[in-house]
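Subject: Sanity check before I submit

Could someone independently write out the structure tokens for this chain? I want to compare against mine line by line before I put it in a report. The sequence has 422 residues.
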Amino acid sequence: MINHRCLAIVLLVLGGNVACSDDMGNEFLLPASLSDTGNDETNDPDGVIPPTRARNWQVLPPGKLVETFDAPETSQVEGAGSALFVRYTTVNVQGEPALASGLVLLPEMQPHAEGDWPLVVYGHMTTGAADACAPTHGTPESTELRRMQQGDEVARLLLSRGVVVARPDYEGLGEAGPHPYLRGDSLAQAMRDMASAVKDHWRDVGDRWIAAGHSEGGVAALNSGSRLHPQAKDLELAGVVAITPVTQLENLITLAEPLPITGPGIKEAVALAGLALKGVSTVDPEFKRLILEEGGLSERAVSLWPDLERLCLGDLAGDDSWGGLSPQQLKGPRGDEMVAEGTRALQEDDVRVLPMRRDLPIRIDAGILDAVALLPFTEVLVKEYRDRGYDVTFERWPAAHSPTADMAAPAIADWIMEKFQP
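---
Independent answer below. Compare away.
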């Protein structure tokens, strides 16, 4: 904890670093420019979040909030007393210090009687890998606005019950660096460090949190409950909610692989395949060389590779981008090797193989009409978890991939509030 005298000095200093000590007498450097993280900043006239002005943030440990701004129009949620864009410190997949962004929604009501706000960190569904796909960077004209706002109904219900809702953008979305799509370590880091940053900055937040999310966010939530990943600082994970979590993506891609044609459904699958290949390439340089330089991808697919850092999911599925390729047209001379290596990487990082904490309650919600996280795949996930002794609540809803979150929202909010009970 920061020494109060040190904090007072920092608030008076205009620049440079300040030598501080914690309550145990351990000394460290605190960048003075990061000391005031109140909501004093405003967005530019166009409502766009400005680039970071934080200095020396690299000296801070992961899970520290460094900047706040009023959230842009499309990140405002009914029932929030405050909606804040935040930047916080984290670690990227290379183990280097990095900044991440997200949204913090504070309820209108005062903290609960015991002085603690419950905290839910909610991971968004796949929007893409470009910076413009970060939900906090949405605009009314964003082609991904529906997916960016898909968690709003869950957030509204939680806010009405006095819960703080934090929504990370994930590594590389909106901030420097690539987005390691569906890489479990990265997603868990984003969730955990945002929870730590919120707890550290808002002292009325209690000591328990719940990780929740939809689609890719469901993968993020489940990875947060893995025994392989450390706890958030000063917080205990009280439960995990995964709405239509992506599982067995390699099988979905393999089913489409032989098709020589494109069309509705296939376009989206090819766009997701491109994102999956890019996600693996962020952590495996040899795989990246295989697909981009050694014939894994076709020449046409290589020419479209920059679109993955330029376009969001819906536009990637368009005829003039990845959606214009049939699955067969993705493969170059070493395409079979690419598919085999990509499949292996996806299988190794699938949520099915996560060693979950055994005392952790898990809730999984599936859409019966889901064409992305197929119901049979989700049922296999639930069965394998239960076979290993995990405490899993499983609900099916008559909905497709996106609408499942809204349909399940009231039941999810009830479940979450039960887990916060003493």
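---
OP: Matches mine. For the report I'm noting this point. The first strand starts at residue 17 and ends at 21.
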